[in-house]
Amino acid sequence: MRLNKKTAIITGSSQGIGRGIAERYGSEGANVVVNYIGNMDMANEVCDIVAKNGGRAVAVQGDISKVADIDNLFAAAIEAFGSVDILVNNAGVERHAPFWEVTEKDYEFVMNVNVKGTFFAAQAMAKHLIETKRRGKIINISSVHEDLPFPNFTAYCVSKGGVRMLARNLAVELGQFGINVNNIAPGAIETPINRNLLNNPMKLDYLLGQIPLKRLGQTDDVAGVAVFLASDEADYVTGSTFFVDGGLTWYYEEQ
């Protein structure tokens, strides 16, 4: 098992991609901290699956856009498992609106979760690893839209562009401490956030026509890359973005 006895914090892991990573990490022997913001039952369900897969897990509530909640998340992880080896910055949100209609409230919501939360969770992880003189891995779940324009989701694209630069900069700054920092950029993954797309046959068919592999991604497609980046096999990999998009990025045209 590639993550045996390693401890991972995965933000926003009660559903979607985060849940898929949590469950996969459990099957690789990891201790998993399942972070959630509202639905404790779903988080506990993930913990049960992690345990069945061979790992150990605890659920910790927290709003990743608040630094105090991030500090509590790390404190809970250390109390439960002694230390943290892997941070997966998965929590993310989006808002749909033409650029000229984006409100300050919506902009701040997207940026506070996607950029601020990722920034300060990574900072907490770096502090922990530096203080304990240990190597570790930071993995950000970005998006193909860190590179690919997405009209009507400008704040989201800006936030993911920020995450791209954050990973590159931290890879340089934290490399001296043996801390690896990478992004995973999913394309169209079949998760609750894409519910409207899944229920619109015309849009779905158009999108599938833009994906060379002719299918939506599954959470396990992302989780497989997340396991690799968290493992010892990726010890010489840092500052990179790994696109998990079925070829979408290099083939896509906005409808």
Q: What are the salient characteristics of this protein?
A:
single chain; 255 residues; alpha/beta; globular
Brief write-up:
With about 260 residues, the protein is an alpha/beta fold.
In terms of topology, how is this protein built?
Blueprint: E1 7-10, H1 16-27, E2 31-36, H2 40-53, E3 56-61, H3 67-81, E4 86-89, H4 104-132, E5 136-141, H5 154-174, E6 179-186, H6 195-198, H7 201-209, H8 219-230, E7 241-244
Parallel strand pairs: 1-2, 1-4, 2-3, 4-5, 5-6, 6-7
Helix pairs in contact: 1-2, 1-8, 3-4, 4-5
**Overall geometry:** globular
Annotation, overall tally of beta strands: 7
The average pLDDT score comes to 95
CATH architecture: 3-Layer(aba) Sandwich
Percent range for β-strand residues: 5-15%
Number of DSSP helical runs: 8
Question: The biggest beta sheet, please?
Answer: 7 strands, parallel
Helix/sheet category = alpha/beta
Distance between the termini: 43 Å
User: What is the domain tally?
Assistant: 1
Which stretches are low in confidence, meaning pLDDT under 50 for 5 or more residues running? none
According to CATH, what is the class?
A: Alpha Beta
- The amount of helix comes to 40-55%
CATH superfamily: NAD(P)-binding Rossmann-like Domain
Summarize the helix and strand pattern as letters.
EHEHEHEHEHEHHHE
Spatial sequence of strands, sheet with the most strands:
3-2-1-4-5-6-7
The CATH topology name reads Rossmann fold
Radius of gyration: 17 Å
Provide a descriptive summary of the structure in words.
It is a single chain. The chain is α/β, with parallel strands linked by helices. Strands 3-2-1-4-5-6-7 form a 7-stranded parallel sheet, sandwiched between helices. α2 links the parallel β2 and β3. The protein has a single domain, classed as Rossmann fold (3-Layer(aba) Sandwich), CATH 3.40.50. The mean pLDDT is 95. The longest helix has 29 residues.
